């Protein structure tokens, strides 16, 4: 990724202390680039920002309707959740409906990021299960599709019908032949693409007609922001701040995407150094720039022009978007 552009700055008093640089692209419904920062052709791993794309075969195959999946299930299929009860209870019931249990997962156990859920496990001297994994909703979607297709249990293998279906959709929506994949934190293949390809795919989601797989997934995310991430998370906070009009999704190593139906636009961004604080600031700045997020909303101000405080609460600095971004 060459020629990144400054995207987020850390100011301590009158001093510019740190700068996070990266790449971002806005595409319209024709697939054309509306605006770009850095290198729009940078090859990236979108990580969990690609979950909506991976979820398309779940609906397009007929599996979602065959198993009676609701908007909550679809939101969880796109989620990187906190492992709170609101997430694990629903995933557990979904697994039961499939006639499966935690052992069917291939994502691995993960300590919940939700503090009450984590503390409850510690107090009861229990270890986390795979259902606590932040990707367990996506994996239950994979299991649903595998069962519908009559495919085998090793659904994370690149040549498994679940993953070949996901790759077909991925390349079709991005308009890019993937140069390969890395293994994600949840053990599933995560395919590389260009940043502009990812923005193009998000614009496709934004302009998809009612009833399509893409529309159903984006609508589920906007309807259930608390399931997509969780309390205190930027995805949930900013989707709520936009009143359910935009779907956004983070990915590991400072990736972020946005689906904006009213403008039929898609956004993709990657911070080069993998800093989440910078990706949250940058996506908030772009959403404000596009007029879909209020700069003065309390939730926006947690990420854009956000105060940095020390251990006694004194404001020591500010996280702000770089001038080139705004």
Class inferred from helices and paired strands: alpha+beta
Please mark out the parts with pLDDT under 50 across 5 or more consecutive residues, or reply none.
none
Tell me the span between the first and last alpha carbons.
Answer: 21 Å
Secondary structure: helix percent: 25-40%
| Major sheet summary line | 8 strands, antiparallel
User: Strand fraction band?
Assistant: 15-25%
The helix-strand sequence is EEEEHHHHHHHEEEHHHHEEEHEE
Question: What would you call the shape?
Answer: globular
Average pLDDT taken over every residue: 97
The Rg value, from CA coordinates, equals 19 Å
How many strand units? 12
Helices, by number, come to 12
Describe the 3D structure.
The structure is a single chain. The chain is α+β, with helices and mostly antiparallel strands and about 325 residues long. The chain is built from twelve helices and twelve strands. It has helices at about 50-60, 65, 70-75, 85-100, 115-125, 135-150, 160-175, 195-205, 215-225, 225-230, 235-240, 275-290; strands at about 5-10, 15-25, 35, 45, 180-185, 190, 195, 245-250, 255-260, 265-270, 305-310, 315-320. The longest helix is centred in the first third of the chain and has 14 residues, at about 85-100. The radius of gyration is 19 Å and the shape is globular. The mean pLDDT is about 95.
């Amino acid at each position: 990724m060459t020629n990144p552009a400054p995207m987020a700055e850390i100011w301590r008093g009158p001093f510019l202390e740190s700068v996070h640089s990266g790449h971002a692209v806005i595409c319209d419904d024709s697939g054309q680039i509306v605006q770009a920062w850095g290198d729009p052709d940078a090859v990236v791993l979108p990580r969990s920002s690609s979950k909506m794309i991976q979820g398309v075969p779940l609906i397009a195959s007929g599996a979602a309707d065959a198993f009676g999946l609701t908007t909550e299930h679809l939101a969880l299929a796109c989620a990187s959740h906190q492992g709170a009860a609101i997430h694990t209870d629903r995933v557990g019931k979904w697994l039961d409906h499939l006639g499966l249990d935690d052992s069917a997962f291939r994502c691995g156990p993960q300590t919940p990021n939700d503090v009450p859920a984590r503390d409850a496990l510690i107090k009861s001297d229990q270890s986390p299960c795979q259902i606590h994994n932040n990707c367990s909703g996506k994996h239950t979607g994979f299991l649903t599709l595998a069962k519908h297709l009559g495919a085998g249990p090793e659904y994370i293998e690149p040549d498994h019908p679940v993953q070949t279906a996901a790759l077909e959709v991925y390349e079709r929506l991005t308009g890019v032949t993937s140069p390969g994949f890395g293994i994600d934190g949840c053990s599933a293949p995560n395919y590389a693409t260009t940043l502009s390809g990812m923005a193009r795919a998000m614009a496709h989601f934004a302009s998809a007609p009612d009833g399509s797989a893409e529309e159903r997934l984006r609508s589920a995310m906007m309807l259930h922001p608390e399931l997509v991430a969780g309390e205190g998370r930027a995805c949930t906070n900013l989707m709520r701040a936009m009143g359910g009009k935009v779907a956004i999704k983070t990915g590991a190593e400072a990736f972020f995407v946005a689906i904006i139906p009213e403008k039929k636009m898609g956004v993709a961004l990657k911070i080069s150094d993998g800093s989440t604080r910078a990706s949250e600031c940058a996506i908030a700045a772009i959403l404000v720039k596009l007029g879909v997020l209020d700069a003065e909303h309390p939730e926006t101000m947690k990420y854009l022009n956000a105060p940095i405080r020390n251990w006694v609460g004194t404001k020591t600095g500010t996280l702000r978007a770089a001038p080139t971004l705004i």
